[in-house]
Amino acid sequence: MHSKILITDIRPITSYYLSEYLESRCIPPGIADSFCREVDFILSGRKHTAIGFQNDQGGYELRNRQFKGSSAPKTSTFIDKKSDQLLVFEGFFDFMSYHAICPEEDYVKANFLVLNSLAFFEKQKIKMETHKHIHLFLDRDPAGIESTKQALKSSFKYIDESHIYRNYKDLNECIVRMKSSRLLLNKMNSISINNQIKTNRHGRN
Known about the structure:
Elements: E1 6-11, H1 16-24, H2 29-35, E2 37-43, E3 46-54, E4 60-63, E5 68-70, E6 77-79, E7 85-89, H3 92-101, H4 104-107, E8 111-114, H5 125-128, E9 133-137, H6 142-154, E10 158-160, H7 171-178, H8 181-188, H9 192-204
Parallel strand pairs: 7-8, 7-9, 9-10
Antiparallel strand pairs: 1-2, 2-3, 3-4, 4-5, 6-8
């Protein structure tokens, strides 16, 4: 976290520079507009503009091509859709990547937790475990793999969904490298959350 960040303006995303950055990360404009804002901030006396994703305490995760940081206070972001299914992501680009490739009829039925840092994983366990199923989309680096491994050992509620991007560091890197939403959609249709949502939906009919 950059403690000296001073946010000076927050607005809808209009910057061509930031729109190009989002395109390079394979995030459609409509999805970015739904979850993010264009944020001006001062750091070390210089003005910067970045994509901002707000957390539950009003701080922002800030990203552009040259900058990766966050404003205080730093914590996670919980999106409550009143579901017993929870999807957990380390970062907001992975969260938006999921929305980019998953049918809307499925993702509107789940709650979401964006950790904004793996350091918050243990702190969020109480909230996570109020859900029937907890679908983990953590990074496939040593820290993310270990956290997933320990969670699977601790409770049957946890489900590892990182197999869909097993050859990549995270979900966003996967969609950027593959450049094909059709191939990814086939993978997404096989993951546990979609099957459980469909089962729940048919069970209510």
